[in-house]
Every structure is written in structure tokens, then in C-alpha cells.
Write a structure and sequence with these properties.
single chain, alpha+beta, Multidrug-efflux Transporter Regulator, Chain: A, Domain 2, 34% helix, globular
């Protein structure tokens, strides 16, 4: 990891996320291989935020995960890299034309049917102003150990209390989180109208002993529909609507409790516009038992 203060004049504490990701860390989070990231850098599709002039190491900003997810989604629809580069500067109307042209070319050539389905649905949602639908992809979340803290809060803006508690308890109990710990949150069923049942989690390298209100357990590997977005959490409601339509049109159903992965959260930044959140919906194809998928 690299602190931004090492490569610019902003430095830690300026309201932005101060930590950048090495190429291997960014590769793991984005699902794009290291070799491909180097190629994307070379052609100008996804350029690192900083390259160390001495070592040549590439460093990426967490906000670039939004763009990387869009690249993966557009490649899944059959777009060439040069087209994806051009799409970076397109407005919504130009994107509509590009998507319609791609649909026509796929239908004329009678190519892969699932690509046609993806493009049709993207045209529909993009036309309704949901341009971020380009960020929906399917991916595998690996099995991992997590330390968790669960409690009730009155509203989501109070989630920071849970994070302060889990960090304080981990420090008190000597629980070691992963060097690049993944921060996750899950909302359980709401039985009380005045309270939210929220669980926050941090990844750990192995099983450890804990007590009091903390738990350590293993999360199994799962396939999810992933949506990475930047900005305020007020977007989540509309994203859920878009995701529901996408799941229906792609013949998927939810197989577990949705959860969020915080790549850049209120713990790290005071500006809502710099938040980078990944919404994950565990999925299986319709008609397949999730226990055997």
C-alpha cells in the first residue's frame, strides 16, 4: 500500500482516502489479472493513480474500482478495448447509440445469446437514466475468516458506532485483522420498526479466540451479482431496484443475505462523494438449489 501523501501534496487527513492499492491488491479486488492491468495502463484504458519513479510499482486509487468494474461489464458484452476507451468520454445519448449498434451487430452475426440479453437490458436501463447499470457484474467472493460485531442502531448513519466498537474490541482482545482487511456489513431482518439489526465484519487471516460481543467465523465462497458505486449511500435504494430487474432478466435469484463491502468508507473519508461501496447479492441460476450450487 502507499499513502497518498507520499506522491502528492494532499497528504493524510485531507478528507480523501489516504491509502492506495498496489497492483496485486487492486487485481484481487477488481478481478482483472495483473498482466491485463499492465496492458490497460499501456493503452490508456486504466492508468494507475501513481507510479513510483524508483521502483516502477503501480498504485491505484480505490475510486478506480468503479471504472474497473465497468470495464469488466463492457467486456462481458463483447466490446473491444478501443471501444471501451472511447466510451469513457461518452455522454448518455452517445452510450445509447453505442449499445444499439452493438446489439445490431450481435443480432446480425447471431452471436452469443447471453451477450444480446445483457445489451438489451442495459439499453433499457440506460435509457431510463440508470447509466450505472454498466457496473453490474457476476463474480466469486472467496471463502474467508471474519471477526464480526452485531448490534442494533436507529439508522444507518449510526453504523460508525459499530465500527468504533469492533476496532476497539479487536485491539483490547489482541485480535489481528488481515493486513489489507476487507470491511463488510450486513443488515439482518428488521423485526423492530425503530431499530436496524446490523452486523459489521473485518477479514482475518485465521481463526482466533474472541469473547464478549465479538464472533469469529468462516464465510463460505459464494457467487454474487456485484455493483460498485461511488458517492452517497442514498443511492442504494435505486440500485436495489435496478439490481432486481437485472436479476430477473438474467435468470438469477438471490440465494443469501446481501452484504456490502466498503472499499472507501466514512471511516476513511469525510466526503460522501469519495465513498466507494460494493453491493453484493449472493445468486444462483433459477431452479438450482443454493445448497448444491
Amino acid at each position: 500500500m502507499l499513502f497518498k501523501g507520499a506522491c502528492d501534496n494532499d497528504g493524510p487527513g485531507n478528507g480523501r482516502n489516504d491509502v492506495m492499492l498496489r497492483i496485486g491488491e487492486f487485481s484481487a479486488l477488481s478481478g482483472i489479472s495483473i498482466n491485463m492491468l499492465r496492458h490497460y495502463d499501456k493503452i490508456g484504458l486504466l492508468v494507475p493513480e501513481h507510479v513510483d519513479p524508483m521502483s516502477g510499482y503501480r498504485y491505484y486509487d480505490k475510486e478506480q474500482l468503479v471504472h474497473s468494474n465497468r470495464i469488466v461489464a463492457m467486456k462481458a458484452m463483447g466490446f473491444r478495448l478501443e471501444q471501451i476507451i472511447e466510451a469513457k468520454s461518452m455522454n448518455q445519448q452517445e452510450m445509447q447509440v453505442l449499445l444499439r449498434d452493438k446489439l445490431a451487430s450481435k443480432e446480425e452475426a447471431k452471436l452469443i445469446q447471453n451477450q444480446i440479453t445483457k445489451i438489451r437490458e442495459t439499453i433499457k436501463l440506460n435509457g431510463e437514466g440508470e447509466a450505472d447499470v454498466l457496473s453490474i457484474v457476476t463474480k466469486d467472493i472467496p471463502e474467508m475468516w471474519v471477526v464480526s460485531y452485531r448490534n442494533r442502531i436507529q439508522e444507518f448513519s449510526h453504523e460508525g458506532i459499530l465500527w468504533s466498537t469492533i476496532m476497539e474490541e479487536c485491539s483490547k482482545q489482541g485480535i489481528k485483522v488481515s493486513s489489507n482487511a476487507m470491511a463488510m456489513a450486513m443488515t439482518h431482518e428488521r423485526n423492530d420498526e425503530n431499530n436496524l439489526d446490523v452486523e459489521v465484519m473485518l477479514s482475518v487471516d485465521k481463526e482466533q479466540i474472541c469473547h464478549d460481543n465479538l464472533k469469529i467465523y468462516r464465510i463460505p465462497r459464494c457467487k454474487v451479482a456485484s455493483f460498485i458505486f461511488q458517492g452517497s449511500y442514498l443511492k442504494i435504494s435505486s440500485i436495489n431496484t435496478v439490481m432486481a430487474i437485472w436479476l430477473e432478466n438474467n435468470d438469477y435469484e438471490i440465494s443469501g443475505k446481501p452484504f456490502s463491502i466498503y472499499h472507501n468508507s466514512p471511516r476513511e473519508s469525510t466526503s460522501e462523494e469519495s465513498y466507494v461501496t460494493e453491493l453484493c447479492f449472493p445468486i444462483v441460476k433459477k431452479g438450482i438449489d443454493s445448497r448444491t450450487a
